[in-house]
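Escalated from tier 1: 3-phosphoglyceric acid holo job.
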Amino acid sequence: MKILVATEKPFAKTATDEMKSIAQIAGCQLVLLEKYTDVAQFYATVEEVEGLIVRSDKVTKDVIANAKNLKIVVRAGAGFDNLNLAACTQKGIVAMNTPGQNSNAVAELAIGMMIFMARNTFAGGTGSELKGKTLGIQAYGNVGRLVGLLAKAFGMNVLAFDPFLKKEDIEKDGVAVVESLEELYKKSNFISLHIPANEKTKKSINYDLLKLMPKGAFLVNTARKEVVNEEDIVKIMSEREDFNYATDIAPDNLAVLTEKFGNRVFATPKKMGAETAEANINAGLAAVNQVIGYLKDGIDKFRVN
Ligand code: 3PG
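Tier 2 regenerated the structure:
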């Protein structure tokens, strides 16, 4: 059986080497398609494989149409907004993610971005400290929870809003739960976003919420660029000189933001949240084990369709 790893942004070699040997032991062949520049290369290589592993690579209707033997696709990571689930389901293809495997890397980046922004992007001048400030975590999943635990070690007051979780489950981490999103924004000097991108959340981080933040506001987005209303970022930052924005993946209007607001804005050139050797190994190995587990034994834990 063949498993394709199609990664425009490749895993570390240590990860793919281990993935290859796991596949080999299971009697499968791991095929790598890395740094591809044309989607036609993806269409051609996906044709003959039974299993597919991707990162943020878009598994579109066309990819699925070309995948004649595909039985399972695993998004090595948390967010699966890049998978066309309807197309997978229609063809009887199982789709999974690998929740939690790269969370620590993303959480560390979120904290790193908070410090970087609070210290004027290390460009000089008097900055501020995290200690004693309030952090609002929007969505308390695997990443949000780790950000909260790290922030507490920095002496931050940590609040969270997550309508999908029980209050007690958050509170047992020593994190205070707020009743509404508005309350979260009103009370937080820093907001860290951990919501998925879907029809409900796209552009949901808007002016009406952002304007509620107290003076000296920092918005940190290690979730998805789509969840933030980019025009509203321009609006709030034009109105408020105390408002700062850091995002892990460049917004479409980055040139405008940088020109207008200088180092009050920071964007990574390529999504970096999960770019650690540890996260690559954790997510990559989990993905290959999940593919094999499904192909050989029909195990469909972490199925999302
Ligand atoms: C995720 O959803 O797991 C992260 O955004 C990581 O994405 P990446 O694998 O493309 O770096």
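Residues 9, 55-56, 77-79, 102, 271, 273-274 surround 3-phosphoglyceric acid (CB under 6 Å).
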